[in-house]
């Protein structure tokens, strides 16, 4: 009979506690979306590792490297960090994500964080659970390299890379031109997302002020939460973009700074839109609460009016229902029809009064 494998290899022999197995190493290539060398604005043919690429550029003493990473872990990005001289604090932020948009300088390297946005399609803003989805995009900018680290499924840069590959004149300005193209792409997408959100808010506004429709205040608060996500992505980015446009570092040449001014103008437009969204939603919340209060007051008036009408026949029926021998018209032949007529007349009179006063 074959021996049953022992668990001794999985458990500690001395103290009986389970031994923690090291994680299975994942090759860096699993996280690298693309690694390219650019010389004189043109992509150098061939497949490159991060080490080979930077060695080639520094051997030529011209050009730069563009490496794109998607959600790497700390162990895998450490090799690139050591080779390219990235600061450990910036590397930690790039791996963990959940950062605010910012721009920081570490020695001869810039670290920039951008929030990406995606508009979530839905049938109606009054029934949607999510309208805006966010992601993150980190960039390391050096003299002869740019490294992008993406978090989120919708923050791809394939279109940006393709457009730049077709425009060597822009790439002649170096990695700063790539940083501008990425920032411009992100901010232009902000414009598209805010335009779609604006349509949703206009639809909610139409429903709020429609005469016979009701929008719950909870749904408007959901929209305010989504607008808050927009604000967290847009507003903090204004200062980094402005610093790049004003010559914050020599890594961004003067020819590229002017392009960042254009991005700054677009970002101001987006910021103004987001601020207007928040003000409009506050107004819609107030209008919704007022409309609900008015509807409740109208319902209470109707209930009160019907209660008053019902009280009349109840009172008269209670009086004539008493067992007394000497009740008026108790033994009269027309007493019962007369009682019904009095009840009906009193109810009709009250109904007309309430209708005239718009209680019914």
From TrEMBL:
InterPro entries xrefs: CorA_cytoplasmic_dom, CorA_TM1_TM2, MgTranspt_CorA/ZnTranspt_ZntB
Subcellular locations according to the entry: Cell membrane
UniProt entry keywords in alphabetical sequence: Cell membrane, Ion transport, Magnesium, Membrane, Transmembrane, Transmembrane helix, Transport
Database matches in SUPFAM superfamilies: CorA soluble domain-like (SSF143865), Magnesium transport protein CorA, transmembrane region (SSF144083)
A GO MF label: cobalt ion binding
Any one Pfam family match given in the protein's UniProt record, by short name: CorA
Primary subcellular site in the record, as a coarse category: membrane
UniProt superkingdom: Bacteria
TM regions (residue ranges): 303-322, 334-354
Function: Mediates influx of magnesium ions. Alternates between open and closed states. Activated by low cytoplasmic Mg(2+) levels. Inactive when cytoplasmic Mg(2+) levels are high.
Family from the record: Belongs to the CorA metal ion transporter (MIT) (TC 1.A.35) family.
Name this polypeptide is given: Magnesium transport protein CorA
Species for this entry: Amycolatopsis bartoniae
Phylogenetic classification of the source organism: Bacteria, Bacillati, Actinomycetota, Actinomycetes, Pseudonocardiales
